[in-house]
């Protein structure tokens, strides 16, 4: 096809696209619903113009239109993504506060056993080995040896980025176990939350008695604000599922499960997002031995205050749904 025929065939579209771009740039309106389709057509036409070696003037014009179109679409998608993220955060916080009784139950299942085990393992070596094997205890001491370059689990991976992936997989696995355990009338959720509380408490008490507080607590305090809170929240989601199955009320169990899952999934979305943040902090911040202990403790305390404020006191939850 000759260049003049090509321009005559598609020129109307190019002119309309130019007018649409000018109107959008001047703030008169947002891109029309047909804008993405027109943009796609222009991309194809630019590719043809280059392939057929049409004039530099035509190629430059089409390239300019494609670049401007791409910018507008990217800008719109970015705004839409930010809006969706904001809406998801609001839904998460509202659901969290509406379902606070499940959150409280999950927190008690996690925190109380952790405290009991921490005190018990700190006071009694025999009590420690009822939970941890001798090999596990020695492994934990090696993890938090003050002479280590990096603290935390053994780093089979060579980079912090690889450990970031490991932490995501591990933490989200626990979260989904806590959530999915609700399908067994809540028993699975109770077991997962209790077990993690008991295990964490045993490790904390043992390492404190072993004199490794100076490395252990600076390591866990930063990412722990997000990770431990997320486990409690995912546990609450599992308890919601279990309660709906145990006491469906006047509804059939499947209907009660469906309605409960709508709210529970909102909690899971927030919990999983928090676990991503926790994994990032654990890989790139918590494990570092170069950062001063007072700095780690200060930042960790600030993160705990932020998480508690955001989840339970921020204005995002002001619009509560009846619950």
Automatic annotation (TrEMBL):
UniProt xrefs under InterPro entries: SpoIIM-like
Keywords: Membrane, Transmembrane, Transmembrane helix
Segments passing through the bilayer: 102-123, 172-194, 199-219, 225-246, 267-285, 297-318
Pfam families xrefs: SpoIIM
Record's protein name: Uncharacterized membrane protein SpoIIM, required for sporulation
Native species: Marinobacterium stanieri
């Amino acid at each position: 096809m000759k260049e003049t025929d090509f321009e005559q065939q598609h020129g109307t579209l190019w002119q309309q696209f130019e007018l649409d771009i000018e109107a959008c740039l001047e703030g008169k309106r947002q891109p029309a619903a047909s804008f993405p389709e027109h943009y796609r057509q222009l991309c194809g036409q630019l590719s043809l113009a280059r392939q057929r070696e049409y004039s530099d003037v035509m190629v430059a014009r089409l390239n300019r239109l494609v670049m401007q179109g791409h910018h507008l679409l990217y800008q719109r998608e970015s705004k839409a993504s930010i809006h969706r993220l904001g809406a998801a955060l609001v839904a998460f916080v509202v659901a969290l506060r509406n379902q606070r009784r499940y959150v409280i139950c999950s927190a008690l299942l996690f925190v109380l056993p952790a405290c009991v085990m921490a005190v018990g393992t700190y006071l009694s070596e025999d009590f420690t080995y009822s939970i941890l094997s001798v090999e596990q205890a020695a492994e934990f001491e090696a993890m938090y040896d003050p002479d280590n370059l990096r603290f935390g689990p053994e780093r089979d991976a060579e980079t912090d980025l690889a450990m970031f992936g490991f932490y995501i997989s591990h933490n989200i696995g626990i979260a989904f176990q806590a959530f999915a355990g609700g399908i067994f009338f809540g028993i699975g959720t109770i077991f997962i939350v209790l077990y993690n509380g008991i295990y964490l408490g045993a490790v904390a008490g043992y390492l404190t008695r072993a004199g490794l507080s100076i490395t252990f607590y600076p390591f866990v305090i930063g990412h722990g604000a997000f990770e431990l809170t997320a486990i409690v929240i995912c546990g609450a989601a599992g308890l919601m599922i279990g309660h709906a199955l145990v006491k469906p009320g006047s509804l059939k169990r499947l209907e009660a499960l469906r309605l409960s899952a709508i709210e529970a999934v909102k909690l899971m979305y927030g919990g999983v997002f928090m676990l991503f943040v926790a994994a990032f902090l654990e890989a790139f911040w918590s494990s570092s031995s170069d950062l001063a202990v007072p700095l780690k403790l200060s930042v960790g305390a600030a993160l705990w205050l932020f998480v508690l404020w955001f989840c339970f006191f921020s204005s995002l939850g002001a619009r509560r749904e009846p619950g």
